[in-house]
Design goal:
Elements lengths: L1 H31 L5 H13 L3 H14 L1 H4 L5 H20 L6 H24 L6 H11 L4 H18 L6 H21 L24 H13 L7
Helix pairs in contact: 1-5, 1-6, 2-3, 2-8, 3-5, 3-7, 6-9, 7-8
Amino acid sequence: MAGRTGTRLRRVLNLYLGLLLFGGGLGLMFQAELGLNPWDVLHQGLAGSTGLPLAWVVIGVSTLVLALWIPLRQRPGFGTVHNVLLVGPIMATVIEWVPVPDQLPAKVGFLLGGLVINAVGTAMYLGAGLGPGPRDGLMTGLAARGVPVRRARTLIEVAALGVGWSLGGTVGVGTVVFALAIGPLVHFFVPRLRVPPAAPAPAPDPEPAPPVPGWFTPEAVGEAAGAARHAPAGEPV
């Protein structure tokens, strides 16, 4: 029981720390101003065209994507819901408090650092095993309906990128770097940050078998054998 409780606690901690790093990494890439990942191009474009705060836009888009799970019969987990609610505010907080760097080397550092931090966060919240993010669940749901994962991911992200770019979202070298590097980085970190399952509880020691009643107990068999040895010849035992 203690082992299972510790594993659950570690899963929850992995989830929250992973979401913190995930949103923080997105915020750093946003401040690099060298190009955003496809979904953040969409978020930025929607925020600029509607005047809504970025955090609200991220939550709203995530909620709409989560609604697309319904026809795909996907079930959100504990981590899925918290992904929807926390990533946008974390990202917006980093954007508000971390200034945009002036020099190109610093911008590149923000981009690359944010990318690695985002990959670590992704691996941590996926490794917690408490539910995928809304966009990941959409892709796996389509894959379960026969659409190859790679094709589903490409179609969805190209659509998000196209709509966001048409609304004024920032597309640049960072967009390409993210597209090429995020998959291998997450693939590297997931097995190293996955929370292992709890060890099964040891089986209780088997109880001794109850004695067999009647003539088949060892005592009864021994008594019968002794009586047979001492009985006079021809006399029944």
